[in-house]
């Protein structure tokens, strides 16, 4: 349990929401919170400086970190909070942090050290190559404000959504999603979009479509079986919507506190990059999004 929750901050409002969400997540998992502000030549720090030198010559970075730490401790007084000013470009800093973290948390938009994270080709580098989960806190507070609260949600909103593609990479998504739901006492909705069934129906082959639907649903259930046995009290829903995966997950996110998906589809680990589905939900989901990478 030594791996902390790491959150990147640049002092922006979006980063502040990410810090609050990460503090709640650290408390939920019984882990420490590590708050990181990255600086490089673009932000007034030469790359490669020792941390103590970077701290000494970047009062603004220290101010940002101190403010974030105060906010985290105010929200979660018992939380172990550490901070560090990292003299590296932001994407590189968070990639390196991810190797030693339980998960990395970032806001959807930024102003300074994490400007534009996950909005363009540069920012997507964090999710492309991170080790383990990267959580993008979209919109409001997500469920950081308390169990069951979501972006613009009322008290009844308490569902974790897991999007799976029925490849071997679905295992890491389900492992993370089942634990996330259990920690929140939330319902877990497993979604596998199968638009091909709608195509078969439109082609006039209703019997074949029904058979395909049955096979897909059985396969989804089989994928979930090991984790269902480990979490016997968890409420579980399995859905096979007949629409594009991005639409299916974005629709499901409107009732969710967290959406979990894999980093890539049908790609070898050595070329792991955020695929089109993860990219789409990062930009359009109505709740925080966890992009889960296999480790190693």
From TrEMBL:
Cited Gene3D superfamilies: HUPs
InterPro entries xref list: Rossmann-like_a/b/a_fold, Universal_stress_UspA, UspA
Domain UspA intervals: 1-138, 160-293
Protein family membership: Belongs to the universal stress protein A family.
Annotated protein name in UniProt: Nucleotide-binding universal stress UspA family protein
Species per Swiss-Prot/TrEMBL record: Actinomadura viridis
């Amino acid at each position: 349990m030594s791996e902390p929750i790491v959150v990147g901050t640049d002092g922006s409002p979006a980063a502040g929401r990410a810090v609050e969400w990460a503090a709640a997540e650290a408390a939920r998992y019984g882990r420490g919170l590590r708050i990181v502000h990255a600086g490089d030549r673009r932000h007034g720090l030469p790359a490669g400086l020792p941390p103590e030198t970077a701290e000494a010559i970047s009062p603004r970075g220290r101010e940002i970190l101190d403010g974030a730490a105060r906010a985290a401790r105010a929200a979660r007084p018992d939380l172990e909070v550490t901070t560090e000013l990292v003299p590296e470009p932001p994407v590189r800093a968070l990639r390196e942090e991810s190797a030693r973290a339980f998960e990395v948390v970032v806001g959807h938009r930024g102003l300074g050290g994490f400007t534009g994270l996950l909005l363009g080709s540069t920012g997507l580098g964090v999710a492309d190559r991170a080790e383990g989960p990267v959580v993008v806190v979209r919109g409001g507070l997500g469920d950081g404000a308390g169990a069951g609260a979501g972006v613009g949600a009322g008290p009844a909103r308490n569902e974790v959504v897991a999007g799976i593609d029925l490849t071997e990479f679905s295992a890491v998504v389900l492992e993370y999603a089942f634990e996330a739901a259990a920690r929140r006492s939330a319902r877990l909705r497993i979604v596998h979009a199968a638009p091909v069934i709608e195509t078969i129906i439109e082609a006039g082959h209703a019997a074949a479509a029904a058979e395909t639907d049955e096979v897909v649903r059985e396969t989804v259930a089989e994928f979930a079986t090991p984790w269902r046995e480990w979490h016997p009290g968890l409420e579980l829903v399995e859905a096979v919507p007949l629409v594009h995966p991005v639409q299916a997950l974005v629709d499901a996110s409107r009732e969710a506190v967290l959406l979990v998906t894999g980093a890539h589809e049908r790609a070898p680990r050595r070329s792991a990059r955020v695929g089109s589905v993860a990219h789409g939900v990062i930009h359009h989901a109505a709740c925080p999004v966890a992009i889960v990478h296999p480790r190693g």
